Amino acid sequence: MTDHGGKRLDSKKDYWRQDLFRSLLVTFPAKSLLRFKCVSKLWGSLITDPDFIEHYLENQQKKEYPQLIFASTESKTDIVLESVAIVEVEVIEQGGAKTRKGQEFSRYHLGGFGRDQVTKECKIIRLFRPKGGFENHVHECEVFTLCSKGEASWRGIGEVAYFIRPAQQPAYVNGKLHWILDGRHANPSEVIISFDLHTEEFQAISHPSCCFEPSTDHYRWRFMGLFSLRGSLCLVEPDLQLNIWIMNQSDGIWEKLFSVDWELMNYRSPLAFPIAELKDGSFFVCHCGDNLQIYYPESKSFSEVLLQHGRTVVPSAYFESLVPLYGVPLVY
Length: 332
Fold this sequence. Notes:
This protein is mainly beta. It contains 5 helices and 21 strands. The strands form 5 sheets. Strands 16, 17, 18, 19 and 20 form a 5-stranded antiparallel sheet that branches. A 4-stranded antiparallel sheet has the order 3-2-1-21, with no helix packed on it. Strand 13 and strand 14 form a beta hairpin.
């Protein structure tokens, strides 16, 4: 084969400009890219390049519609996961598509998962009460690093110096996991703690002005929850309205993002936690624990039900990613 100048081209060489090639690859689904790695050494090296992996994740996070995953606790020990692409949402009578039963968890355990922003490794966190720790509410912490080393295992990092409220999911924001402390915690000025996945240390952080002495309002304290929006830590607070607070990551100052009138919701519990913000400023919310809807802050209204589950679910937003579970890309 020859070019217009009569020079012979070697078909075994790839003359794509890498920047153009990367801009095309970043638009493909993650599953397709994993298959494309087998096309050639060049394709494989580009797709597994750490810079491309980070660029792909950033591009996915700019999409208008995230994907959602739902966790359902039908019993005290069973976790059921469902994955739904919101763009192609389909109402199915018995709970949705791709349902499978997961591992058993004790109700006395708290778990968390996140990514170390420095080493880029993913870590699993387990908080549990050891034998004899139920009376004094002591938690111990173990960490499992998903690394390429064959000897990887659980590592104990000792007792946690905070009384963490049970039965809550941590909020992962910028390399840290966050929990709300129990109302019986010894220091009432400490309300929220973070766990840095790199330093593996716990620390009390700032909290909104609505977080006062918990003993004065057990209902409010019980139903406060943490989640992530706009890459920042947020808190939902049941008051005369359902208030959503957001923390400025640079200075730790909290401000009220918006409020939802109780009259718009049929029930006060479970609360309508925002799941993800859309490009038009509206929010996906899980209303009453099982109805997926969109909330519009400007008009203070909900959309019609997009998806309805037959059981209470805990939803989370996610984006497709090529980030490996190990610290270095796997070679196939």
